[in-house]
Each structure stands twice: as structure tokens, then as C-alpha cells.
Design goal:
alpha/beta; 5 helices; 4 strands; 37% helix
Length: 103
């Protein structure tokens, strides 16, 4: 059975074609990876800010997977706002998250 040890959700930009495969390759036995995409059309400040507006939707799409943790896998986007901002923003929208990490 997949995910008996842990279920990890990832908020990933649509332009990132590497991280999901890497997460699955590196996951230990019993850990399942569940990805949700945030639309990114241009890797510019404006494009990254727009991508962050898709974050709430991406979190909602992870909800049915009952993930234990959500990783924000948008390194350049996370530089626009610190991790406390992202955590507080999601919590203010009534998303309950165990933990958010920046990769």
C-alpha cells in the first residue's frame, strides 16, 4: 500500500518537469508523493506573483489525497515572499496544513 508511512504533497510550477519525478525516485518505501500544479507562464516577477495566486487552488486539489505535509516547490517564487507569509496566507484562507517547507 502506498503512503502508509507518509503522504507528501507538492505545490509545483507547471514549468518544472524535474521535481515530481525526483521526489518519486527518492521517496522511501511507504511514502507517496502527490503533486498539484500552479500555472507559471513566464519566469518573471509578475509571472511568479501570478503563479502564487493559484496556490489556494493547488492546495484544494491536494486535499482528497489526505497529505501529511505540503512542500512549496517554487524556489524562485518563494524568494518573493518569505515562508511565514506563505504559511500565514494559506492559514488565513482556512487551509489547515501540518507543515509547509521551502525546497
Amino acid at each position: 500500500m502506498y503512503g502508509w508511512r507518509a503522504r507528501i504533497g507538492g505545490l509545483i510550477p507547471t514549468t518544472n518537469t524535474i521535481v515530481e519525478a525526483e521526489f518519486n525516485r527518492l521517496a522511501p518505501e511507504g511514502v507517496s508523493i502527490h503533486a498539484s500544479r500552479m500555472n507559471l507562464r513566464q519566469a518573471t516577477v509578475r509571472g511568479l506573483e501570478k503563479m502564487n495566486t493559484y496556490m489556494e487552488r493547488a492546495v484544494k486539489w491536494l486535499t482528497p489525497a489526505n497529505v501529511d505535509v505540503i512542500a512549496f516547490v517554487g524556489t524562485s517564487a518563494s524568494l518573493l515572499r518569505n515562508i511565514e507569509f506563505l504559511t500565514n496566507h494559506l492559514r488565513s484562507k482556512r487551509f489547515w496544513l501540518t507543515f509547509i517547507i521551502e525546497l
